[in-house]
Amino acid sequence: MRLCVFGVGYLGATHAACMAELGHEVLGVDIDKAKLASLEAGTVPFYEPGLEEILVRNQEAGRLRFTDSYAEAAEFGEAHFLGVGTPQKRGEYAADLSYVDSVVENLAPLLTGPTVIFGKSTVPVGTAARLGARLREIAPAGAEVELAWNPEFLREGFAIEDTLHPDRVVLGVADDSTRSEQVAREIYADILAEGMPFLVTDLATSEMVKTAANAFLATKISFINAMAELCEAAGADVTVLADAIGQDARIGRKFLNAGLGFGGGCLPKDIRAFMARAGELGADQALTFLREVDNINMRRRTRMVELAREAVGNSLLGARVAVLGAAFKPNSDDVRDSPALNVAGQIQLQGAAVTVFDPKAMENSRRLFPTLTYAESVVDACQGADVVLLLTEWAEFRQLTPADLDSVVREKYIIDGRNCLTPSQWRDAGWKYRGLGRP
Ligand code: UGA
């Protein structure tokens, strides 16, 4: 099929490339000329393993192009995907829907024949119904334009795998829809042939599936981090606790890694937008627990700063602190609401000289926190350090051994913000080791 994908950020660029990989002809549409130029030149403007190969392969095969022209897109597309961002509004919990609204307002007047628009962005429940009504109002094709919601569950770092082999496809369709499901089945034929669940729901349920999933994941992480707080108070070990409760299939071990908590462009803003929407719907009590989930998460950052301060004799003033990791998680260069950078910034504000190293997120970090010092390597970052903080669990950091840093640091003190090192290995080599939620 001929498909358009509006928005070529993490979600849109991945979706566009993967749809082309499935054999469709795809046009990626954005208003950001710099992003378009980069993609046209075969370069992905962010780090996502495997994406560049798929991009280039499909460009060379003539199945994938980019444009800033809505007229070209309206002419070309048999179906359209909406993959623009829905960031948190400044100073509010609610999601900023201006990018989503803008695509609909600009595209709809150009739609003169039957088509389906599939929303993929994470939106507050009720948005799809509102946009559907608006489309009918302003699209020349009227009711022949259908709006369906097809939430995206991809994780950064595994975006290709999650798009081409998702664990479920969810499709919300309008009550009077006649074609959305059939068109989706055609687009996703190869994916559905693998036999994964295809759940067709009403619009509101499909929007909520996405926010509920992210709220659950955030809650799971904050649950184990609350246990970590308790373990610290009681002298217990949260990593062993997680292994033990995770054996229960009803609980499961995934997303029970205690540490510095969650960040990124999704979980934090999604739970806040979910709370804001519940308030608008008069059901705010149902989600007040998410405020606590958010609080527990933010407390982990403060705790990390406290541990660093304790490590250097209770004052960070003039201390040399090495920070390993700046991305919000490994295998990503995304620093949006990154716990690691947040901690680095707080420590610097308390008077320490902070040196940061991250395998992929240096450029983005520099842009966000230009006043931190950036090193070229782990060893470079740890030079003369009074304490080393491991804040993002890149494989390169997990594999570190005391011998790598023994002669580099000033004090042999490491704080493992992701519980990804083996404490005994460091203690046996004469290091002080602290983990979050471990004795
Ligand atoms: C998340 C969801 O996992 C995806 O399913 C969803 O599609 C996406 O948001 C989205 O809404 O677009 P992502 O933001 O890529 O994906 O990152 P996750 O892998 O979920 O990690 C989020 C944060 O939680 C990271 O900062 C990570 O370090 C932290 N985390 C994760 C923990 O602290 N502990 C864990 O056990 C797991």
**In CATH, what is the homologous superfamily of the largest domain?**
NAD(P)-binding Rossmann-like Domain
Helix content: 40-55%
Domain tally: 2
Distance N to C terminus: 57 Å
User: Uncertain segments of ≥5 residues (pLDDT<50)?
Assistant: none
Globally, the shape reads: globular
How are the strands ordered across the major sheet?
3-2-1-4-5-6
Q: What is the CATH domain class of the largest domain?
A: Alpha Beta
Class per helix and strand makeup? alpha/beta
Name given to the CATH architecture of the largest domain: 3-Layer(aba) Sandwich
Q: And the CATH topology of the largest domain?
A: Rossmann fold
How many helices in DSSP terms?
19
Distinct small molecules bound, one entry per kind: uridine-5'-diphosphate-glucuronic acid
**What does the radius of gyration come to?**
23 Å
Q: Give the rounded overall mean pLDDT.
A: 97
User: How many strand segments?
Assistant: 14
In brief:
The chain is α/β, with parallel strands linked by helices and 439 residues long. The protein has 19 helices and 14 strands. 48% of the residues are buried.
What would you note in describing this structure?
The chain has 439 residues and is an alpha/beta fold. The chain is 44% helix and 14% strand. The protein contains 19 helices and 14 strands. It has helices at residues 10-21, 33-40, 51-60, 70-76, 98-107, 127-138, 159-164, 180-187, 189-192, 203-234, 238-246, 267-280, 288-311, 339-349, 362-368, 378-382, 395-398, 402-405, 423-428; strands at 2-6, 25-29, 64-67, 79-82, 115-119, 145-149, 169-173, 198-202, 320-324, 353-357, 373-374, 387-390, 413-416, 432-435. The strands form 3 sheets. The chain has a 6-stranded parallel beta sheet with strand order 3-2-1-4-5-6, sandwiched between helices. A 6-stranded parallel beta sheet has the order 11-10-9-12-13-14. Strands 7-8 form a two-stranded parallel ribbon. Helix 10 crosses helix 12 (267-280) and helix 12 packs antiparallel against helix 13. The radius of gyration is 23 Å and the shape is globular. The termini are far apart. The model has no long low-confidence stretch (mean pLDDT 97). Bound molecules: uridine-5'-diphosphate-glucuronic acid. The site of uridine-5'-diphosphate-glucuronic acid has 22 residues, from helix 10 and helix 12.
